[in-house]
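Key result, reporting period 2: structure in, sequence out.
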């Protein structure tokens, strides 16, 4: 732990807010990169014809979850419907989208580590991982926000994978790495003063 700082001084609210912001910025960047193509997609056209409104923001959400390696699950579509993944592969979006969540979480962990002034590696990791609660809340909420229903059939990101991968694993690992880098690049003299 950094000299002169206790657990009670950990920036829990700042960490949660940074995680929340990392998720939102990641979704917005995914939207900017994919929305035009998704708006014109055959799937969105079908949804518009069946339901009367576009599902672009939901489909962008599917791609954003796919960038966390989370598949989309379908219910009541057809027996043994395959899960879908829209990043990479034939006619998929660029695999560079896989870098977006780690970069956003790394930046958030780095920012929280800098805010705290962590100079110790272990303290930096713990501080950077404080982005987890904010990212977890939106990762769970997004599963329900991005559900698309056509008749009695529906599709949405896999809830369990969203909780485990996007909600816990990604922010714990990449937020902590950002915090470690913040600690490693902090001048200890400035922390002591």
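The corresponding designed sequence is given below.
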């Amino acid at each position: 732990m950094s000299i002169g700082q206790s657990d009670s001084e950990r920036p829990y609210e700042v960490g949660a807010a940074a995680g929340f912001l990392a998720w939102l910025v990641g979704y917005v960047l995914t939207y900017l990169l994919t929305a035009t193509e998704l708006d014109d997609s055959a799937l969105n056209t079908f949804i518009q014809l069946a339901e009367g409104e576009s599902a672009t923001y939901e489909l962008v959400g599917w791609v954003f979850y796919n960038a966390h390696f989370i598949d989309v699950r379908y219910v009541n579509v057809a027996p043994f419907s395959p899960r879908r993944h829209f990043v990479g592969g034939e006619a998929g979006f660029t695999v560079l989208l896989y870098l977006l969540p780690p970069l956003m979480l790394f930046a958030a962990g780095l920012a929280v580590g800098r805010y705290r002034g962590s100079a110790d590696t272990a303290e930096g990791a713990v501080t950077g991982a404080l982005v987890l609660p904010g990212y977890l809340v939106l990762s769970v909420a997004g599963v329900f926000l991005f559900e698309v229903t056509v008749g009695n059939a529906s599709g949405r990101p896999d809830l369990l994978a969203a909780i485990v991968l996007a909600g816990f694993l990604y922010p714990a690992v990449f937020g902590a790495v950002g915090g470690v880098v913040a600690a490693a690049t902090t001048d200890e003299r400035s922390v002591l003063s």
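The chain has one domain: 22-187. The chain has a mean pLDDT of 87. This case is discussed further under Risks and Mitigation.
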